[in-house]
Amino acid sequence: MAVDAPFVVTQMNGPLVFAVITMFAWAGWTIFANFAAKSMRPATVATVSYLVALPVVVGYMHVSGEQISMTTRGVWFGTLAGVCSAVGTVSLYIGLQRGRPSVVTTVSALYFVVAAVVGMLVLGESVTTTKLLGLLFAVAAIALLAIS
Known about the structure:
InterPro entries: EamA_dom (IPR000620), EmrE-like (IPR037185)
Strand content: under 5%
Number of helices: 7
Distance between the termini: 42 Å
GO cellular component, one term: membrane
Largest sheet: none
Pfam family, one: EamA
Number of strands: 0
Transmembrane segments: 16-36, 43-63, 75-96, 103-123, 129-147
Oligomer: single chain
Radius of gyration: 18 Å
Domain EamA: 16-145
Number of domains: 2
């Protein structure tokens, strides 16, 4: 089956491609975070991670030509996102330091269920039987992975 070049280019720039990149990047993050958390204190690991992340993001901005664009609302929510990210990161490293990565990372992966529920209850996203079943199966899968 031949695929038109514009279709391929469009799909290569689509949200699903970036979701897959994110999936693999976060998988790498959890693997390397586990090793780091076993050899350094959690806050130190988080500090190193964020110090390395900043030039990577700035490099992306340079390569992509993206300009810094700030609004009061964006800075406020970006700040809250940064606080949540930092709390989650340090908490993950503490969990990895004290427990099994298969349990800690799997349970922490439930964040998307929380985000989906908030989206449906607070942000006005549609609630469908399919979405609810998907969330239920996701929770069941994560629970089964975490207890095995």
